[in-house]
Amino acid sequence: MAGSFNQQTPRAVVEHLVRERVYREMGLPLPRQAKAPNGLVVNVSARHCHLTQEAVEALFGPGHQLTPVKDLYQHGAYAAAEAVTLIGPRSRVISNLRVLGPCRDLNQIELAYTDAISLGFDIPTRMSGDVAGTPGCMLMGPNGYFKMEEGVIRAAPHVHMHPDDAAYYGVSHMDKMKLKVHGECGVTFDNLVVRVDESFKLEAHIDTDEGNACGLKPDTFCELIK
Amino acid sequence: MAGSFNQQTPRAVVEHLVRERVYREMGLPLPRQAKAPNGLVVNVSARHCHLTQEAVEALFGPGHQLTPVKDLYQHGAYAAAEAVTLIGPRSRVISNLRVLGPCRDLNQIELAYTDAISLGFDIPTRMSGDVAGTPGCMLMGPNGYFKMEEGVIRAAPHVHMHPDDAAYYGVSHMDKMKLKVHGECGVTFDNLVVRVDESFKLEAHIDTDEGNACGLKPDTFCELIK
């Protein structure tokens, strides 16, 4: 069975498959949790930015293409080798802000509130892509500056899921669910936004404040509750 | 009625008293929430330290006494004018770490995990005072250094309450309750530790990661759930 997995298969996915296999081989009825089509992965998104190709070229040079260095769990998404310096409203900076690829058609910075407060930003909680009227900032790269008129947000906690997962949990795109994180500092996130797409793998995204509030570790048991 | 309050009366306490008065004056039965003996105040504790008199003198000079500058909600507790520099395991520092008074019989630093990670600390979640085996650190003040052998913790989220509150909620000292924080980024803290004492006013304490995760503001509705 080990051959089915590579090093990047998240523990929650392996456990889900093992659980399902064990129940089947023992001839036992599957408990509801083991009937889920996919294991739930919860990942903490540290602060990062999404850039347009135009911004990449302003920051890193004409014709520059992002360099993938680490695949993320969602298909096609990656952490790039490139990082930028973010200059906030009071000239405070965050250096080494990671760029995620591939390029998008809008520029967006995702910070936790702790990051935003330390920079002096007053930012709203938004879904990715919904940046109208949000604060802007200056970015600096090795080739120069790029001014974002808007796009600095705290991302709303959310869960990506395939339509099969949505059917299992009985939810639709943009519904809200709860994410219960067990353990010593157990926390339930009561307004997790559901995002459904054919291309999505089941994965909840929380930010560093949320991940640190609940002390999330690789073996922390997490569940989605409608 | 305004004369009954000073500027330091928390909004939640004023609202609780108004709610109770309105129901009574309208001759309506009190809903359960209005029957609570006290309004629930939720405060975010930013990183801080508690020091012994010995540590205060090492850091600020022989015979030095802490200078109260702001009363905290619990009777007798205050933020002091004094602040120290904390030096972590990789020589990273946090300056202006606030000292809370009065002096205690042990030294304790309370950090959020975001603070601890940025300093390179691996700290456990503990109740205040339970510091055996926790990491130590160096502190620096205007008069010199002070070495703490242990005492750097992330404080477990907790709620202070008077025995009257404990009776109302049906809980005892060291029980666990839930703290539900409503709003856009609603979060339920599932393991809030109950601390009961005759001297305590009803107040939940969460750290900056927890406060930022739920976007707590002065008008956020919060409730305790057994």
UniProtKB/TrEMBL annotation, chains A, B:
One Pfam match: PTAC
Pathway: Polyol metabolism; 1,2-propanediol degradation
Endpoints of the signal sequence: none
InterPro entries to which the protein is assigned, alphabetical: PTAC
Reaction(s) catalysed (UniProt annotation): propanoyl-CoA + phosphate = propanoyl phosphate + CoA
Compartment(s) of residence: Bacterial microcompartment
Cofactor: Zn(2+)
GO MF annotations in UniProt: acyltransferase activity, transferring groups other than amino-acyl groups; metal ion binding
GO cellular component: bacterial microcompartment
EC number: 2.3.1.222
GO BP, sorted A to Z: 1,2-propanediol catabolic process
Job description of the protein: Involved in 1,2-propanediol (1,2-PD) degradation by catalyzing the conversion of propanoyl-CoA to propanoyl-phosphate.
PANTHER family associated with the record: PHOSPHATE PROPANOYLTRANSFERASE
Family recorded in the similarity comment: Belongs to the PduL family.
Protein's recorded name: Phosphate propanoyltransferase
Upper classification of the organism: Bacteria, Pseudomonadati, Verrucomicrobiota, Verrucomicrobiia, Verrucomicrobiales
